[in-house]
Amino acid sequence: MAKNIGDEFTWAKEGMEDLLKNDLCVKYITSDPDSTIYKAAKSLHAEGKLQDKLRHFLDTRHLAENSGTPLPNAGGSHTAWYGRGGYILHCHVETDSDDDGAKVNQVSSDDRAKVNQVSNDDRTKVNQVSSDDRAKVNKVSSDDRTKVNQVSSDDRAKVNQVSSDDRAKVNQVSNDDRTKVNQVSSDDRAKVNQVSSDDRAKVNQVSSDDRAKVNQVSSDDRAKVNQVSSDDRTKVNQVSSDDRAKVNQVSSDDRAKVNQVSSDDGAKVNQVSNDDRTKVNQVSNDNGAKVNQVSSDDRTKVNQVSSVAFFKL
């Protein structure tokens, strides 16, 4: 249920839902012009809880106490009147009979006139009560807010004081811890640096000694290698020089022999060639003489035959 007396929408909606639970369906609503009761009825109609669209009548406010008794006793009316929160709901009992439906809808103009005849005095009384109630509610609310604000202010002050004290302690502890940590770190770094410096000195000394030994060994080895290489090169060069002398001597003797053979062969070839040419030339001269003799004889015979033939002609 709604707790705020001014929430007409919620009061009206819950009241109509209560009526529906008792098989009472709202058909008409009478309210003042600035009321939200009719909006509550339209909301229920939109939700499908009220089947018929309600009729809205305008009236003054806060009619529940003054009209609750006479209206149900109005003659000839089968409508149930329900007053709550400053408004009147016109309800009827749902039945299956058409006659019952007709009776429910027969709300007389006299009944409406009685409902509308609410005096200014009644409205003044109701408004006065409402004004007094609102003043009391506002007074209580103001007092409660003052107490709550005072408690909240005190609590915040205590919380802030505790927080400030805690922060101071935490900061002090943090500063002390940082100082200790920094001191330890500084000492550790000094020790580590000293050890590192000593180790580097030892390593460098060992490295220097090792390099000196290695360089000495390398120098001795290089001297030995160079001496062996020099001796080997001398021997190789000596062997090479002897071999070249022998080779050159052999080559010179071979060339002398080859040239002597070539000279003898050339003399023999030239002698044979001169003899062959003399014989060939002698044969050629003899053959040429014979050929020329034959040719001369043949020409003489041809000329002799030609002369005889000429004379015969």
Helix content: over 70%
Strand order of the largest sheet: 2-1-4-3
* Uncertain stretches of 5 or more adjacent residues: 75-87, 92-105
Number of DSSP strands? Answer: 4
Distance between the terminal alpha carbons, to the nearest Å?
A: 185 Å
Mean pLDDT: 76
User: Rg, please?
Assistant: 77 Å
Strand proportion, as a percent range, falls in 5-15%
Largest sheet: 4 strands, mixed
The SSE string, one letter per element, is: HEHEHEEHHH
Individual helix count:
6
The computed structural class is alpha+beta
* Overall shape: elongated
Q: What descriptors fit this protein?
A:
four-stranded mixed beta sheet; 6 helices; 4 strands; 313 residues; alpha+beta
Mind explaining what this structure looks like?
The chain is α+β, with helices and mostly antiparallel strands and 313 residues long. Among the domains are: 8-118, no CATH class; 119-224. Helix content is 76%, strand content 7%. A four-stranded mixed beta sheet has the order 2-1-4-3. The chain starts with 7 loop residues before the first helix and ends with a helix. The model is unreliable at 75-87 and 92-105 (pLDDT under 50).
